[in-house]
Amino acid sequence: MNENNVINEVTSKQPRLSENFIKVITRNELSHSYLFNGESGVGKLALALFITMGIFCPNRKNGYPCGQCNECRRITEQQHPDVVIIKPDGQSIKVDQVRYLKDEFSKSGLEGNKKVFIIQDAEKMTSGAANSLLKFIEEPGNNIFSFLLTTNMNLILPTIISRTQVIELQHLDTDSFEDKLSKMGILKSQLHLVNKLTNSTEMVKVWQEDDWLSKMQNSVGNWFDLIVNNDAEAFVTIQSNFMPLVIDKDHRAPVINMMIAIFEDVLNYKYLKLGQFSFPNNEKNIELLANKISSKTLVQILKIILGCNKQISINVSFQNILESITLKIMNILNR
Predict the structure, then answer these.
(1) pLDDT tens-digit profile of 175-192?
(2) Are 130 and 86 spatial neighbours (Cβ–Cβ below 8 Å)?
(3) Which burial class, exposed, middle or buried, applies to 262 when counting CB atoms under 10 A from its CB (0-12, 13-18, 19+)?
(4) Known PANTHER family for this protein (predicted)?
(5) What is the rounded distance in angstroms from the CA atom of residue 100 to the CA atom of residue 86?
(6) Long-range CB contacts (< 8 A, 24+ apart) of 180-184?
(7) Is 164 in the same domain as 178?
(8) What CATH code is carried by the domain that includes residue 215?
(9) Are 161 and 240 in a shared domain?
């Protein structure tokens, strides 16, 4: 991410926040610690880097960082000696990482008297790391600024939250996001689905690898058609079609969310007669099922799929979870 990309991303995704923070920096009223809460893709890291550029940039114009100087460049390239960025080491942020951070910040600034640290995915801190950080942000010292970034503030220690200024980042504008998706090569038949699944273009790029998104959308659509037609082959498709595409743990959530999305299509058609589907290729069976089942049954099915998140958290086999969902849904529809 280069300096101009940071400025462009922030001003397009979070125009109000970027403008407000420029005013705060200009008035020297920046708080020592912030918690940025928002969905993936809304610009949390870009906003933190943008503010950091505003803190260090010697050539600010109307409060905005120039985006061209050596300070701006090194910050966005994550090469500035007085700016430390921490992200999960594997599945979590460990206590040793926070200790390293504290050691770095116990030293004087290498090039000035200001220091900034940014913690990505702050909700993934271990309890030891979180408690170690808590002691640090209680008394951070002069000219030390911290930015904690999270997609789920509920997983952050309340004591940490109470010592930070919480900033909620707005959702992305749907039209502008879909425009970006179209430019990335996302098919028109996939736009509505992708918009339901994520706000992150980076995540979409991952799903585009090896045509994963199209393959998974087709697999879920085929599974749904088999269920609507009471075909036991729906159970078999979990092992044969789904599991080869579940490459790692990060690919589990979008699979579940796709299954939810196709039944939401049924729900939306049943009550709102919406013609915009996440699974447009399955329109015929979506309408068929919507006209056939009751609202009570539809809610039962959605609850079954939503309930699997608890099983995932306790490491139940993902294949077993999907097969169980399939059998339960078919059982409900055959009553």
Answers:
(1) 777 888 888 999 999 999
(2) no
(3) buried
(4) DNA POLYMERASE III SUBUNIT DELTA, REPLICATION FACTOR C / DNA POLYMERASE III GAMMA-TAU SUBUNIT
(5) 10
(6) 184/208
(7) no
(8) 1.20.272
(9) no
